[in-house]
Amino acid sequence: MDEFDRDPHEADAGLPEGPGPDDVALPGFDTPAETAPKAGYQVLARKYRPQTFEDLIGQDAMVRTLTNAFQAGRIAHAYMLTGVRGVGKTTTARLIARALNYETDTVKGPSIRLEPPGRHCAAIAKSSHVDVMEMDAASRTGIGDIREILEGVRYSPVSARYKVYIIDEIHMLSTAAFNALLKTLEEPPGHVKFVFATTEIRKVPVTVLSRCQRFDLKRVDRTVLADHLENIARTEGANVEREGLLAIARAAEGSVRDALSLLDQAIVQAEGDGPVSAENVRDMLGLADRSRVLDLLAAALQNRARDALEELRAQYDAGADPQVLMRDILDYLHAMSRIKAVGGDADLAEAKETVQVLSELAASVSLAGLTRLWKTALTGLEDVRSAPDPVSAAEMAVIRLMAAAQLPSPEDAARLIAGGAAPQSNAAPAAPEAQPPSAPQARHEAAPESAKAEPAEPDAQGPSSIEELMVLIERERDIALKRDVERFVRPVTIAAPKFIFEAAEGAPHDLGGRLASFLAEHTGSRWFVDGKAARGGETLYERRQREAREREERARRDPAMVRVMTLFPGAEIVSLEAPPAAEPIAGPDVSPSQDMPEDPIAQERRS
């Protein structure tokens, strides 16, 4: 018999049992039975998996809906559970399977109350019940796997009330598998129920979603999750500081499984029988001390640049991740905004001392300023994520926060500009030179330079200027010719019937011919058009660019604009618009020396 045909469970014939001559016991490697590790240890995420619907935390809306449906006998044939990782989708699917098949000596129908455990509860909880099939669509994605389910659907359950098919990560199924499932999912036999779970609900076809009753499992609130962790830690005989539990809840981002895994790791951080401190948890998670982050934020808002940057560098040297630092700053700015908006009803998951400090900081900043700071910090977080040197990006973000915190509110800025006073700073720009007082202006001021007179309509003989030519082209809606004339025509002479210009670089080679044809067609006479002249004027496009530069330069020299740029360092002029022209005062001008009634007292004296 070949050696590969032997039963692996049979002992090798002819070989002595027990240790051989080479099996020498090595001192220090023999583990005594009394010191061997405990067998069958379960991690907290499995040990404390909910066994009833009452044990589910943070999913009250779903539990209430299912309870009412079971009590009313309105049980759907398919359920779709969606949510982020670790919020209880698979656990809820098994609880639904247990509720559908719940049976005791006194309960003979589906029940949402699973205490005491029914006949089928233990097997379903262990995923070993013959009538409750679980399939992981992440590893079984093809149509062949779905065909196995469809073939089994025809047969009645062996011992339970319903055959329940639980398909986890259903969004991983192929298109053909989804299509094969549709008909059975729409009209399943009465003894079949489907429960689907997915983290990517947008990838599930609408045709499948429309055949299911959908439940969106929520992220668990930080405070609720911290309370849950505290109860489990107490049951395990571990003492974890409340601040450490809140740090775990924040890091878990609403996932109960993630939080329990982190708690499992945190419990072993204690030295001996001592408590697990918040510092132990922060070191484990690579987090910064949030109280020190609050000190950093306070220094930035109070414009203490040296203190803020030194605190940032000290936390980085202690192992804090710059991204985590920026996220903590964002959390605090968000909390300050809530305090500013709703006052004492902010309902923050922070210690009382922290809330007090945040309230004091929020009192010194306007709500608009807080929203500006939050946006600045959010941009800083994105910079830290993409920067080659994250800590340098974090320092720049803190510096921008300090600059943004010192900016006045729009109301204060308007008052300062109207009053002609600029805020004092360590590096204020030089004040503009004093201008001599201008002469008294006449009552009727000249129209502003930007208000150009509209170009006249071309006469019957044809246009006599480039502006009149543009009016004619616009009236005839020749868009292509209008664009080319604006950019490439430098006029020299335009007088009917002759048009001489210099063609700018890049001009179309047929521009002269197109202009001649256009003028002949719309003036009724033949024109001589020459585009090879030299030393022409500006094109209309070049003129507009020059005028825009001149307007911006005048605006920059304007005293009011100088004050605005001083109030808002780094501000840029994006566009300039002429103010609307003032309405003229109706009626003729009346000079003080005419048409005024004589003083009655003067009349009396003369008389």
CATH-assigned fold name of the largest domain: Rossmann fold
How big a fraction of the residues is strand?
A: 5-15%
CATH H-level homologous superfamily name of the largest domain: P-loop containing nucleotide triphosphate hydrolases
Indicate the CATH class of the largest domain.
Answer: Alpha Beta
Given as residue ranges, the uncertain stretches (5+ residues, pLDDT < 50) are 1-36, 421-453, 587-597
Percentage of residues in helical conformation: 40-55%
- Average of pLDDT: 80
Number of domains: 4
Basic shape: flat
Biggest β-sheet, characterized? 5 strands, parallel
CATH architecture of the largest domain: 3-Layer(aba) Sandwich
Commentary on this structure:
By secondary structure, the chain is an alpha/beta fold. Helices cover 46% and strands 7% of the residues. Strands 2-3-4-1-5 form a five-stranded parallel beta sheet, with helices on one face. A three-stranded mixed beta sheet has the order 6-7-8. β2, α5 and β3 form a beta-alpha-beta unit. α12 (290-301) runs antiparallel to α13. The longest helix has 21 residues, at 322-342.
